[in-house]
């Protein structure tokens, strides 16, 4: 846990944490010493002349107040360290997010990062402030007590020395029991959570088919979660009880050993209560520590996930970045995989400046991956991606991003007005330029319908706009950015004829002016392309112009023949026969 | 502190919780007994001439009390956890049942993450309140009270002195918390800033990076984080002193110094015998201990309370009323009369819609996006209730039809396919969980997906997402098989489905033709060419029916539909090109 904290902080920020730990150690040991000094004090009080106890009380008071002063300093430092730690973590995560390759950010990662910044970091902030002190005290104070005990009574000291490793073993065992039970439970929690999300997302379908009543899979998952929780309870109870029992058993053992010695006359009567008081002080921090297990585990998990992100290697930046002179794109024998088997194998092609290339192929063929590698979302595992003859790995990230513009399938809208969202394409653009881009992207009607026109806030995640309209915002951004290379994914545009027209217009306006890579589905796009690449299972199986490929009579021509048949399809009237 | 809603929520497990509290009370009292036994042992030994049997009896009593306390505490915690477990399942089921009846619009306005938060996370947050805090409070109150009662019996004056650190601790804690209300709100605001900046930074990372805005978003995030931390350090700097002082006031070291010093003076003054100091040395640190954990407990209570409130709020979401004596939908078509609808009560999505769907005919809904086509289609299946007018099926208002009977009457093929986790067969069986496999296969065959399923490692028993991955178009055909198996007389169809996956368009179209055959069909149409043969084409604009008729009539009229048709003319051109392509 402490090691994880140091890792999260990084070497340059670990000084305060080290100082805090030292302070906590001092305060815990002083506390143990004060408890130990209670023995002579109590012996003096209970001895023949209680008045002789005052000097001992003085010693206890001095030691106790120094312990209190140390605790004060430590606790103040702990609050500060906690808050500094959280700040450092936010900064380090922020810096890391900027460096991480775009390919790293899939949907689950994005959710995880949001949670990490909003929940895990504040959670970790609590560690120095609330968890570290009891944890250090729980270890060092009892150890100090054990260390000084032989000065007073060897038998009781022996009892404690024997018990310590036992306690440690039982604590380890009980923590492991709880942890294991907890882990088993996670599977059922994830299953239930998944079903709940499915329940909410698939609500229209569930209702349409009369299955929204919460019967079936969701209910089974909820019941399963309940059963797993109960099972965890039965498995965790022995573990939880065991440590509490052990701590109390140690106290009982000391009591029995002490009483035996006192009755036998080998222990002075005043010494026994004094030693039992000390033993009670020995046990108290231990009992307190047992209750920290759950918070410790949660914080440790949070820290571990933060450290995992901080440990991800960013794509290396070139030492001597080169600025490409042209917007030619070349893939040279590019091989790439996300981990489980290659997605692209030996893909080679060139896209001369100001030409248009269409990528076609079944879903899963690797079309999106080609587009992503072009902008170095990932580094290739074999071969080279070159722009203007320069390997993308030798181009500074910022320069590379300035070269390429994207029209995404999945459009993210920021809070702010529609104009702000378009201006993302080029922050310095004038109002007029923004309006022109909006108009070119077919947003005129949308702007006219909005209450405050282009200055209307789009609402969180653009709830005001439909999917097609959002994609048009993406097109407007790309048009405004006006980068030399444009990557455009037609996929969702296929749904809506209005959007289709906009996408076609955008393609037409860019063709011949920019290097254009289109993941294409529409016939007209493909026909207009200077080159068509047919991608299948990660390989380019055919390439050429539309007519050439049709003549070749391969996959491409079969594919387009089928596509053209579907054009004429329609649903018929009362006769109820479909056909085309 | 706990609102009555929370008490109401606990009602089903109140008995078990009472037992748990009782056990915990026993445990708390028994937990103090060993210390009392030790004090008595000390007194007996120091008094001189103690009979060993009595001393051993006391030791035995103390040890037994340890055991009793431990067992009672374990039992209390177990009972409370079991009760909490039952309560969680019950609340989750209540929530799910309730959610199944709220209008569908609620789901589109609320994301699924929100539902998951309440059903899973909030119920879990309440766990601490139910299974821990109740017992915790019992023990934290009763342990010091028992100890104090005993000490009062030993020496009431010194017992009162042991209360001083408690009083000081509480007073300091109160000072630390004073003005916390507005500060908590400020804290929430600052934390919210981080949240929204991180969402923008991370969710929009692709946009941010490719458009070179990474530095700006990064700076906004860092600024929000810094503002939060500046605020938080200011706050904690102001309260650290008082908080730490309150913790120190109740720490065992300080308590012992206060009590032993006073005790020593009292012994010196002859106010009490020296042996009476022993129980104080043992028990005094117990008395102010509750203060040390008070902050975390209040936080837990607050968290649990917030969670309970959001659970209650969700359970209070208005549901669509169920008919008290439902009627069976009659034979015949669907009829809409003066239908008006608004999601929020302000903006009208539909108004004054009159429409008849004759049995066995095809009706197409066309119009620009946002005209209300999907909303209208969803009203027929009563995903929402109309705000004006009525919808009848075979003469019976949909609001008077039993929900179970309604879904057997109206089927859906959606544009967004939702395959559920589970076997492929179960996915097709959605509407009829007990349909035999032959029927499932027949539906799959008609939906052009049977061969694909057969090719899977476990055929129809393959699990979606485990050993069955489907492309968009394949998933569409499964959803069509679903509708075929459901075999409802009325079917709502989103024509966009046909284009969801350009690579399997042809097969989807074949499947759609199969499912459309012989039903009363309502088609949400995007490409006019698809529905030019429909029995009736309804043009919607801004929630109103602007034109109605057959393709030829509407073209001849030269109105809105004719304009739309012409606007899609390029598409017609491309079809002509395709025809050329077909015969190269």
UniProtKB/TrEMBL annotation, chain A:
Broad class of the protein's primary localization: membrane
Record localization: Cell inner membrane
SMART domains in the record: AAA (SM00382)
Topology of this chain in the membrane: Multi-pass membrane protein
Residue intervals of the ABC transporter domain: 329-562
Keyword Transport: yes
Keywords, comma-separated and alphabetical: ATP-binding, Cell inner membrane, Cell membrane, Membrane, Nucleotide-binding, Transmembrane, Transmembrane helix, Transport
Parts of the chain that traverse the membrane: 20-41, 53-74, 131-150, 156-173, 240-263
ABC transmembrane type-1 domain location: 20-296
GO cellular component: plasma membrane
SUPFAM superfamilies xref list: ABC transporter transmembrane region, P-loop containing nucleoside triphosphate hydrolases
Gene3D superfamilies assigned to the protein according to its UniProt record, in alphabetical order: ABC transporter type 1, transmembrane domain, P-loop containing nucleotide triphosphate hydrolases
A Pfam family that the UniProt record links to this protein: ABC_tran
Signal peptide residues on this chain, from the entry's feature table: none
GO molecular function, one term: ATP hydrolysis activity
UniProt record similarity statement: Belongs to the ABC transporter superfamily. Siderophore-Fe(3+) uptake transporter (SIUT) (TC 3.A.1.21) family.
Protein's UniProt name: ATP-binding cassette subfamily B protein
Organism the protein comes from: Thermocatellispora tengchongensis
UniProtKB/TrEMBL annotation, chain B:
Membrane topology term: Multi-pass membrane protein
Major subcellular site: membrane
Location of the ABC transporter domain: 334-567
GO cellular component, one term: plasma membrane
GO molecular function per UniProt: ABC-type transporter activity; ATP binding; ATP hydrolysis activity; ATPase-coupled lipid transmembrane transporter activity
UniProt-annotated location(s): Cell inner membrane
Domain annotation ABC transmembrane type-1: ranges: 18-303
Descriptive protein name: ATP-binding cassette subfamily B protein
Protein source organism: Thermocatellispora tengchongensis
Alphabetical list of InterPro entries matching this protein: AAA+_ATPase, ABC1_TM_dom, ABC1_TM_sf, ABC_transporter-like_ATP-bd, ABC_transporter-like_CS, P-loop_NTPase, Type_1_exporter
Segments crossing the lipid bilayer: 55-83, 126-150, 156-174, 248-271, 277-295
Keywords on record: ATP-binding, Cell inner membrane, Cell membrane, Membrane, Nucleotide-binding, Transmembrane, Transmembrane helix, Transport
Highest taxon listed in the record's lineage: Bacteria
Family: Belongs to the ABC transporter superfamily. Siderophore-Fe(3+) uptake transporter (SIUT) (TC 3.A.1.21) family.
One Pfam family matching this protein: ABC_membrane
């Amino acid at each position: 846990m402490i090691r994880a904290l140091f890792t999260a902080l990084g070497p340059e920020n670990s000084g305060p944490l080290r100082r805090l730990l030292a302070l906590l150690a001092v305060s815990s040991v002083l506390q143990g010493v004060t408890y130990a000094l209670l023995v002579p004090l109590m012996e003096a009080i209970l001895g023949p002349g209680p008045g002789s106890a005052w000097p001992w009380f003085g010693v206890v008071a001095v030691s106790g107040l120094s312990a209190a002063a140390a605790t004060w300093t430590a606790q103040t430092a702990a609050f500060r360290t906690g808050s500094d730690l959280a700040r450092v973590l936010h900064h380090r995560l922020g810096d890391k997010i900027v460096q991480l390759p775009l390919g790293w950010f899939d949907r689950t990662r994005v959710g995880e990062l949001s949670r990490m910044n909003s929940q895990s970091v504040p959670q970790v902030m609590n560690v120095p402030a609330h968890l570290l002190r009891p944890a250090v005290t729980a270890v060092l104070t009892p150890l100090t007590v054990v260390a000084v005990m032989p000065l007073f009574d060897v038998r009781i000291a022996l009892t404690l020395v024997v018990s310590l490793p036992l306690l440690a073993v039982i604590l380890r065992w009980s923590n492991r029991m709880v942890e294991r039970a907890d882990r088993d439970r996670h599977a059922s929690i994830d299953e239930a959570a998944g079903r709940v999300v499915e329940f909410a997302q698939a609500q229209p379908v569930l209702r349409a088919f009369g299955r929204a009543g919460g019967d079936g899979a969701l209910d089974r998952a909820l019941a399963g979660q309940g059963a797993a929780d109960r099972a965890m309870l039965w498995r965790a109870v022995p573990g939880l009880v065991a440590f509490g029992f052990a701590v109390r058993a140690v106290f009982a053992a000391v009591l029995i050993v002490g009483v035996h010695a006192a009755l036998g006359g080998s222990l002075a009567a005043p010494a026994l209560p004094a030693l039992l008081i000390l033993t009670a002080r020995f046990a108290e921090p231990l009992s307190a520590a047992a209750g920290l297990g759950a918070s410790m585990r949660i914080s440790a998990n949070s820290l571990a996930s933060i450290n995992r992100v901080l440990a991800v290697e960013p794509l290396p930046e070139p030492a001597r970045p080169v600025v490409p002179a042209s917007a030619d794109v070349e893939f040279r024998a590019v091989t790439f995989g996300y981990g489980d088997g290659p997605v692209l194998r030996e893909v080679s092609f060139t896209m001369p400046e100001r030409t248009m290339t269409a990528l076609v192929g079944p879903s899963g063929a690797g079309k999106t991956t080609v587009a992503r590698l072009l902008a170095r979302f990932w580094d290739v595992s074999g071969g080279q991606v070159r722009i203007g003859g320069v390997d993308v790995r030798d181009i500074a990230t910022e320069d590379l991003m300035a070269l390429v513009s994207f029209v995404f399938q999945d459009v993210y809208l920021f809070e702010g007005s529609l104009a702000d969202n378009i201006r993302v394409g080029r922050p310095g653009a004038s109002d007029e330029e923004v309006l022109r881009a909006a108009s070119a992207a077919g947003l005129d009607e949308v702007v006219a319908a909005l209450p405050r026109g282009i200055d209307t806030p789009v609402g969180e995640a653009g709830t005001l706009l439909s999917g097609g309209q959002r994609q048009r915002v993406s097109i407007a951004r790309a048009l405004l950015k006006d980068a030399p290379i444009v990557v455009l994914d037609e996929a969702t545009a296929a749904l809506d004829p209005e959007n289709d027209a906009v996408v076609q217009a955008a393609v037409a306006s860019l063709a011949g002016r920019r290097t254009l890579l289109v993941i294409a589905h529409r016939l007209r796009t493909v026909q207009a392309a200077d080159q068509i690449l047919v991608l299948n299972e990660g390989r380019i199986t055919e390439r050429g112009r539309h007519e050439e490929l049709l003549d070749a009579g391969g996959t491409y021509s079969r594919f387009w023949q089928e596509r053209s048949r579907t054009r004429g399809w329609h649903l018929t009237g009362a006769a109820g026969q479909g056909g085309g | 502190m706990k609102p009555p809603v929370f008490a109401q929520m606990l009602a089903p497990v109140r008995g078990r919780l009472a037992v748990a509290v009782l056990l915990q009370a026993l445990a708390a009292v028994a937990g103090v007994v060993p210390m009392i036994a030790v004090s008595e042992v000390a007194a007996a030994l120091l008094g001189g001439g103690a009979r060993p049997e009595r001393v051993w009896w006391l030791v035995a009593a103390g040890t037994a009390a340890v055991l009793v306390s431990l067992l009672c505490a374990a039992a209390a915690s177990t009972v409370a956890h079991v009760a909490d477990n039952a309560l969680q399942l019950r609340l989750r089921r209540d929530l799910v049942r309730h959610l199944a009846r709220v209008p569908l619009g609620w789901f589109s306005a609320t994301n699924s993450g929100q539902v998951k938060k309440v059903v899973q996370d909030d119920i879990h947050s309440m766990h601490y309140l139910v299974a821990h805090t109740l017992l915790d409070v019992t023990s934290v109150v009763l342990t010091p009270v028992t100890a104090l009662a005993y000490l009062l019996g030993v020496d009431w004056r010194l017992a009162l002195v042991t209360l001083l650190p408690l009083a000081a601790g509480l007073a300091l804690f109160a000072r630390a918390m004073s003005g916390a209300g507005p500060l908590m709100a400020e804290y929430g605001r600052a934390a919210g800033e981080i949240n929204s900046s991180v969402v923008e930074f991370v969710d929009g990372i692709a946009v941010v990076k490719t458009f070179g805005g990474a530095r700006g978003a990064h700076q906004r995030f860092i600024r929000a984080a810094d503002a939060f931390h500046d605020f938080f350090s200011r706050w904690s700097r102001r309260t650290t002193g008082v908080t730490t002082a309150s913790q120190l006031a109740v720490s065992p070291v300080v308590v012992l110094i206060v009590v032993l010093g006073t005790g020593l003076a009292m012994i010196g003054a002859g106010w009490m015998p020296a042996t009476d100091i022993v129980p104080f040395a043992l028990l005094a640190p117990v008395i102010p201990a509750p203060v040390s954990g008070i902050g975390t407990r209040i936080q837990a209570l607050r968290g649990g309370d917030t969670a309970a409130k959001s659970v209650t709020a969700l359970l209070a979401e208005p549901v669509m009323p169920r008919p008290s004596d439902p009627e069976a939908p009659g034979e015949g078509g669907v009829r809409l009369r003066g239908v008006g609808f608004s999601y929020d009560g302000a903006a009208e999505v539909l108004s004054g819609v009159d429409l008849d769907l004759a049995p066995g005919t095809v009706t197409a809904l066309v119009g620009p996006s946002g005209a209300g086509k999907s909303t209208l289609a969803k009203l027929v299946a009563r995903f929402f209730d109309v705000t004006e007018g009525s919808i009848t099926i075979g003469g019976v208002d949909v609001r008077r039809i039993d929900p179970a009977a309604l879904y057997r009457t109206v089927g859906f093929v959606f544009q967004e396919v939702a395959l559920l986790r589970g076997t492929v067969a179960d996915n097709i069986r959605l509407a009829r969980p007990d349909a035999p496999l032959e029927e499932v296969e027949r539906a799959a065959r008609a939906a052009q997906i049977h061969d694909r399923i057969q090719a899977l490692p476990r055929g129809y028993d393959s699990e979606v997402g485990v050993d069955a991955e489907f492309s968009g178009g394949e998933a569409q055909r499964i959803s069509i098989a679903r509708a075929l198996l459901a075999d409802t007389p009325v079917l709502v169809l989103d024509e966009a489905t046909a284009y969801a996956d350009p690579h399997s368009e042809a097969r989807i179209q074949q499947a759609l033709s199969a499912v459309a055959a012989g039903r009363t069909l309502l088609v949400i149409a995007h490409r006019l060419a698809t529905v030019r043969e429909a029995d009736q084409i309804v043009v919607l604009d801004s929630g109103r029916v602007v034109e109605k008729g057959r393709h030829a009539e509407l073209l001849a009229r030269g109105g809105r539909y004719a304009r739309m048709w012409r606007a899609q003319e390029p598409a017609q051109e491309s079809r002509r090109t395709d025809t050329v392509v077909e015969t190269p």
